[in-house]
Amino acid sequence: MQLEIVTPDKKVFQGEVSEASFPGASGAFQVLNNHAPIVSALAKGAVSFTTADGKQSMIVDGGVVEVKDNTIVVLAEKVIG
After folding, report:
1. How many other C-beta atoms lie within 10 A of the C-beta of residue 63?
2. How many domains does the chain have?
3. Which of 14, 55, 79, 81 is the most exposed, fewest CB within 10 Å of its CB?
């Protein structure tokens, strides 16, 4: 799957991931390959994902995530750290 994390200032991450976990406004959830399309608001919390280099994580301060056709786009208010 392709993951792209963008803030109003810059593109924070773009690359291939095998899974990703998000702090949804209604609770945390995980996205795997061939996930059904979804749009969800994000709460403040950790976005974690697994690349070929291993597990990575960053804190987002709210935003929106869209999953469609094995592409995940995160529009984050800001990324902390």
Report:
1. 24
2. 1
3. 81
Question: Is there a contact between 1 and 16 (Cβ–Cβ < 8 Å)?
Answer: yes
Question: Could you tell me how many helices (H) and strands (E) the chain has, helices first?
Answer: 0, 8
What's the chain's length in residues?
81
Give CA–CA dist 71/69, Å, rounded: 5
- Grouping H, G, I as helix, E, B as strand and the rest as coil, residue 53 is coil
Written as one letter, the residue type at 27 is G
Q: Which domain holds residue 58?
A: 2-80
9-65 pLDDT per residue, tens: 999 999 999 999 999 999 999 999 999 999 999 999 999 999 999 999 999 999 999
Contact of 55 with 19, CB cutoff 8 Å:
no
Biggest CA–CA distance in the chain, Å, is: 30
Give the domain CATH number at 63. Answer: 2.60.15.10
